[in-house]
Amino acid sequence: MQFGINFFPTVGPDDKDAADYFEESLSLVELAEQLGFDHVKTVEHYFFKYGGYSPDPVTFLTAAAARTSRIKLVTGAVIPAFTHPLKLAGKLAMLDNISRGRLQVGFGRAFLPDEFDAFGIDMDESRARFDEGLKACQRLWSEEDVVWDGTFHSFGPVTLLPRPYQRPHPPILVATAKTPSSCEQAGRDGHGLMMVPSISKREVVQDMLGLYRKAWADAGHPGQGEVHMSYNCYLSEDPAEARAKGKEYSRRSNAVMRDAVAAWGERRSEGYAGYEKVVENIARADFDRALAENKVLVGTPEEVVERLRTIREWFGDITISLQVISGNPTHEESARSMRLFAEQVIPHFRDTSPTAG
């Protein structure tokens, strides 16, 4: 298994100054490299405390690249619907060169109605815009004199500069929340997968992984593909403190998310079947149940080891992204969770094989 840190901010100006947030997060990036984590990742969101301090993953990861030399840099994810492919492909190619090939590009559709409204984009176009943007970036990275005549963009012939450091292009990951067809398509195309298991039943996640791995194998790709899963994480050597603080920070994260998804109380979209229930689902969030179902990595190092062993039995060898800043814990608490995880949890999973897939 591999492990990294996902920087998903859930703060605004009344919680923490933006400059302080970035300085603290970048110091955690340096710590992640020192502790031997495999990747750092950040999101693309706008306007709300739910991710709004990260409107451009490329900017943050470029700063991270300057402070590190080994760790992978993952966009989790960039949104093609909100950026012209010529701009998006160019920015990502720059980062791939600046980091000397440490970039992995996660692409996502976005799901917040207010973000689509602000950009003047119809949510019902999100799937088509996602597909077109991803494919256009692939061609711009891997071909010369590209001519593109799509539904939303037309250009060419153009040859992108700089060319990506990795050839033909950086590894691609596809974010999916609840759409099985997205898993199958990612598998067929040979892309990695990014998932958030906390929002679905375990059996649903297993079914989606099965679709992905079958499509991957049927397409003739080697191995089983790459799967990233994000988990809120809080560790302490005191079990009572871990549970109490983990519960409080989960409550804060849920409150921030509730504000961001409020528009789903009235909005409907054919491209987002079932999303009208998201407000109700967040209102029903139960930390104790999530802990019992291993949907959060909260506890002592020993307890988290056992949670991860169960997760590994369920899902096989996956990449875990730890959300150690979500809910706005103190900087010292985030650093402590990282140290405890690196020193007392990761060694149990470096040289062993999964018991199930």
TrEMBL record:
Span of domain Luciferase-like: 1-315
Signal peptide range: none
Gene Ontology terms for molecular function: oxidoreductase activity, acting on paired donors, with incorporation or reduction of molecular oxygen
Highest taxon of source: Bacteria
GO CC field: cytosol
Protein name stated in the entry: Luciferase
UniProt organism field: Streptomyces pilosus
Source organism phylogeny: Bacteria, Bacillati, Actinomycetota, Actinomycetes, Kitasatosporales
